[in-house]
Amino acid sequence: MSPPPPSQNAPPVLFTVTPQAGVPIYMQLVEQITRMVAGGRLAAGEALPSVRDVAHALVINPMTVSKAYSLLETQGVLARQRGLGMVVALHQPQRLLKSERLNLLRPVLQRAAEEAAQLEIDRDTAVRLFDKILRDKK
Amino acid sequence: MNTNIIEMQSVVKSFTGKLALNRLDFSLASGKIVGLLGRNGAGKSTLMECVLGLRGIQAGTIALCGDDPNALSQATRGRLGYVPQQTDLFGWMTAPQMLSFFKAFYPVWNDNKTNALLDRWSISRTTLISRLSGGEKQRLAIIRALAHEPDVLILDEPVASLDPAGRRDFLRELVDSVIARNATVLFSTHILTDLERVAVDVAMMKSGKILLQAELDTLSAEAVRLTGTEPSLKKLQAYLLTNLVVHGVTATAVARIPAAEQAQLRVQHPEITIEHMSLEDFFIEVTA
Questions:
Q1: Is residue A25 within 8 Å of A17, Cβ to Cβ?
Q2: Which pTM value belongs to this model?
Q3: What is the pLDDT of residues B90-103, one digit of tens each?
Q4: Which chain B residues are Cβ-neighbours of A20 within 8 angstroms?
Q5: By the 8 A CB rule, do B24 and B11 touch?
Q6: Closest CB to A61 among B33, B220, B279
């Protein structure tokens, strides 16, 4: 993908939030954006949708979006660029190692494990389901 | 400015012997969006009505934008928007008639906004208000409350009679226009997902008191359920918000533990399970 022109920010619908997930909404955004950048779905230099657009599209408080963006800025994932708002930082803190990417995945799986236990789903069945979901993605 | 929009101290309000507000303390800083949670009868509506001077109080003090609620200045009135839980007034008028009646009381009135919202929310301009559905009446009350562009909004269960799509659309209006202009909002609700979307702070009420008031994101990281043996949980007594529920050898309780201390406690007390809870479960248990 070629770098998008200034007016073409990534669409706000790129993100999803789930209230009542037990994870604050700003953290959900932080985790998603971090994953998207690590996985290359958001390219270096690509502009993020404006705070207002994300707030409007997801029907969440603009301050929540700002909070996520600011946190990502301090982590070096995003950078503030005049006229464009937030962009994916050109020089990522460092290309994330596999172990670091695994650490990003861990909290989501941990929550899934908690839910599986609550639903009394045994380990083999849960692992098979995750395996199937991974295969279906391909 | 860091002045408080609402300041309540030791407020007592009773109805024929029943305490509705029990020496309640509450403050709301300018620019905050606070969701007020409480079960039916906790005193949410009474709190709002007392703040607005619609009900007198027996003891304590209340200031709304620095004014005594019983003697609100013209300036303060102009800043306020209020959506009561139920509005059955002005049934003999049509929506545009009612709106133009209210327009006369305010120095600022956004006709574009009211017209756009009447269209967007498909409210008939020719039907008498008494013939509108509960949801339409509620939407109309919201339009009336937003028309003079208030910067302090007090909303008593503003979405109670709206369907999920209507709720979403109201919240979007709140996000786009109200929050964007830095208004202060106090809204009561029992729909936690709505609260989580737009509120920054949450205040939980029980039996006429504010049980806790916290930043939503912080609380959501701190709300946990502890499971372990009774003696082990008693060691964490300081964090517990509910009594221990004991089933045989295991006991469980709801607690609030700062995120940083959770990891430490997991190491110090491996026999205790610390699980995150949704705010809804947390709310239900601490207000039980």
A1: yes
A2: 0.79
A3: 899 999 999 999 99
A4: 192-193, 196, 278-280
A5: yes
A6: B33
